[in-house]
Amino acid sequence: MELPNSKMVKHDGNNRRDRISELPDDVLMGILLFLPTEEAVLKTSFLSHRWKQLWESLPVSGFNFRVPMPVCCRGGHVKNLKDLRDGKYMTVEDMKRECSKFVKWVNCVLISHQGSTIDQLRVRFYLDKDSQRYIDKWIKIAMRKQVKKLELDFPSLLHRPSNAYYPFPQECFPGIEFITSLLVNVGVSDEAMEFVLSNCPMLETLLLKNSPLLIHAKVSGSSLRLKHLNISHSESIQTIEISAPNLVSFEYHKLRKVPFHIWYAPKLTELD
């Protein structure tokens, strides 16, 4: 006798009962907890509506969205790990399609998940200003769920003009005050940097990388909790000014030297 409402699946031409989906919710939740949340979505949601409902309420500490990245480029073509073995190149159009798939994946996970909080959100892919409305939505969702660590890593294989970089938003999304760590490889302007420092009172770590929009970096404020500052490979930067009472470490990496002034940093012990 079959259990009521048991699901039948077709396998090798035969109908067989889906015994996994008949397991109690707590057992299925245990299975999902062994998978990274991003994989739980991709590998189980298509099985049944019940699986989808379970992962949506899965308690998670954070999301890490990343895929194998292309390793080199040549003449408007990019070469990824698989194609590198096959000796084949992907065209820029191929990369655009991959970006579209990546955006849909992140959208699916973040919009569907019903958890009330996210400790960490990490997104790493070749995204730019063309994906701005989606990235803004991801940030808004994460901040609404009181994200503490936000990492946006959008490198560029080919030359990218400064106006094509994703510009970090200057908008007070609800929950922005909970950010403690911000690591970004995007377009951060002088105004955006000032906005972040003024509206993230809990911020302790700030890493800015490859931002062509940053010209005059100014870190100043008597109430800043910032402890760690890293500015690297932002080739347009001309000056750096620092006045941060709790700053412990400051790292600066660039091909050429620029004048920087540390007006006040009594706790600074690491300077590189």
Topology:
Elements: E1 8-11, E2 14-17, H1 25-33, H2 37-44, H3 49-56, E3 62-66, E4 72-74, E5 77-79, H4 81-86, E6 90-91, H5 92-112, E7 120-124, H6 132-144, E8 149-153, E9 181-185, H7 190-199, E10 205-209, E11 216-220, E12 228-232, E13 239-243, E14 249-253, E15 260-264, E16 270-271
Parallel strand pairs: 3-7, 7-8, 8-9, 9-10, 10-12, 11-13, 12-14, 13-15, 14-16
Antiparallel strand pairs: 1-2, 4-5, 5-6
Helix pairs in contact: 5-6
Molecular structure report:
InterPro entries: At1g61320/At1g61330-like, F-box-like_dom_sf, F-box_AtFBL13-like, F-box_dom, LRR_At1g61320_AtMIF1. Residues 17-54 form the F-box domain. Pfam families: F-box, LRR_At1g61320_AtMIF1. This is F-box domain-containing protein. The protein has 272 residues and is α/β, with parallel strands linked by helices. The chain is built from 7 helices and 16 strands. It has helices at residues 25-33, 37-44, 49-56, 81-86, 92-112, 132-144, 190-199; strands spanning 8-11, 14-17, 62-66, 72-74, 77-79, 90-91, 120-124, 149-153, 181-185, 205-209, 216-220, 228-232, 239-243, 249-253, 260-264, 270-271. Strands 3-7-8-9-10-12-14-16 form an 8-stranded parallel sheet, with no helix packed on it. Strands 4-5-6 form a 3-stranded antiparallel sheet. Helix 5 packs parallel to helix 6. The chain is globular and about 70 Å long. 25% of the residues are buried. Mean pLDDT is 80; it is low at 1-12.
